[in-house]
Each structure stands twice: as C-alpha cells, then as structure tokens.
Design a protein that fits this description.
Layout lengths: L7 E7 L6 H9 L6 E7 L6 H11 L3 E6 L6 H9 L6 E4 L5 E2 L3 H12 L3 E10 L6 E3 L9 H7 L7 E4 L15 H10 L5 E13 L10 H17 L5 H22 L4 H14 L14 H11 L3 H10 L6
Parallel strand pairs: 1-2, 1-4, 2-3, 6-9
Antiparallel strand pairs: 4-8, 5-9, 6-7, 6-8
Helix pairs in contact: 5-8, 6-7, 7-8, 8-9, 8-11, 10-11
Amino acid sequence: MARENIYISVIIPCFNCSKWIEKCLKALESQIFTDFEVICIDDCSTDNTMEVISSIKESSLLDITILHNSINQGPAKSRNKAISIAKGKYLAFCDSDDWYEDDFLEKMYYKLVDHGANLVMCNYRKVFESGRVPEAIQYLPNKALSNEEYMVYSKSSLCLLMFESHIIDDLIIPDLRNGEDVASVPCIEVRAKKIVAVNEVLYNYRIRRDSCSNRVSPKVFESLSNAFRFIEDNCTSEYKNALEYIGIKTVLYGAIVNGLKAKTNRSQILNSIEDFERKYPDWYSNRYLCIFPRTKRIFLFCIKHKALRLAYLIAKVHEKVSV
C-alpha cells in the first residue's frame, strides 16, 4: 500500500532467499514506526523468492516495491539500483536473511531527528543457524564519541546504519563481492556532519553455514585489498588516524587473514604488507591499535615482523574471530 509520507526507505537485495525473506518482511510489518517504504531487488533468483515476496505484498500493509535485475549483478549493484528510486529522506538496509527488532526504525529515526544528526548506528545480535545460543554484539562504547571515534568503532555493515540519503549523492557502492560494505561504510560515515548511536541491539544477523562471507577464497583477499583502495580514493584526509586504523583492520588483518587461510601466494601477501607500510610507515603506533582484541594484536605483531608462518597458525586457530 502506497503511503503519502515516506521518511525512510528500507532496501533489501534478494537472491534465492525464499527460506528467510518472509521473516525479514514480517519483522518490517511489526515495526512501531510506520512511515517507510520497502524496496526489494530480485537478483535473478532461481528459487521461489519472488513468489513469496509477491504474495506478502498482496496481503500486507507494507509499501513494497519489487525491482528485477535482468542478469545476476550482486548486492552492490542491486542496492545502487534501489537507492536511485528511493523516496525516503533516510536510507536503511536489511539483508534478506536477517531481520529488525520491532523498534529498529523508531529508535534509529528519532535518534537522528532528536540530535540533528546525519547518521546513526546500532548494536546487533548474531543468530546461528546451527542452533548455537544467539550472541549480542555490543561493539559501541556506552558514551558519546567523536565522528572519528565512531568511524573506528563501527562495523563494516550498511545494515547497522541509517543515514540521510543526500550524503551519498556522490557515492556509488562498489561492486566488490565480500567487500562492498567494508568499502562503503567509512566513505558514508566521513560524509556525515554528525554521527550518533543507539546503544541497543536492534538488528539480527543470521550466521549461515553456506554464507559467502564465511567462505575461504583468494577472491576475499583481493576484494578487501580493493575495498581499502576505494576508501582511500573516496575519503578525505580529515580523519587520518581513523583512515589508517581502517586500513590496518581491512588490509593488514582482514585481507591477510583471508589470504593466509586461502594459501594466497606468499610474495603477493608480502607485497600487500609492504605497499601498506610505504603509505603508512608508522601504522604500528596508531592511537587506536589498542582497540583490537589481544589475539588480533598478536597477529598484527607477526605481520609487523613478517612472521607469516606464525600469523597463519594464529589465523587457523582463531578462525571464528571476526574481522
């Protein structure tokens, strides 16, 4: 059902998600805040995803727009397509196998409005398909932070953000499988004049065994390396320490961990480290390095001293440690 006042556009890329999309959309039906639209983009699903969404659209009060890609293009291009037609002043994102808490839109929206902010973020919950007990991830400190500090503490997920749509008028989400959120989140944050946070768990992130984000592949090493190049090209130098920290997290930890697990050529990994150190020779003295958990700091110590065999062992032993 079309609404006269649309304050938020919720964007959902969809590909073979018939098992989960109903829960995602039902959670949107339960939202306390109701002045929003939903844009679902079908990326050439081969299951009955579109039948499920169409059926829900027919009976739901949600304002749902369904877009179709003519060929499979991936989540980045799907999101860009939806952004181009979004009517909301604010943009929010949800993955098709995840879901919002009932007060996600309400609390995120009013946090923005009440504080005159451009961007807001929240905490999330990991829900394991294996049946493991869900885990609340409280990554945000329980205090107000500067914009630079929010950039440092934030997670690489568009789904944990809501922001004014105009701040990405000059930005296209890059087509980097496993790296588009990593690349785009800092570039969006740096364009916000004021960042705030709702220090509550408002988003549910389903951990699937077959998720692309859990696969070991040399392509992940390349995607994360390219993601940081995109960040460098599209972020101002206003927050130099944050940018360097994001590089450490993305390249020296994220890309190298995945490269080692995927047995990427040693010389390629060393070249990546050396290229980073030429640009950021004092990276090991970054003021935010202490934020990393102890295991990751030990890994980075190994990278600093080019002890790749020891770094590989740490990466294998701590495979479940998130980037």
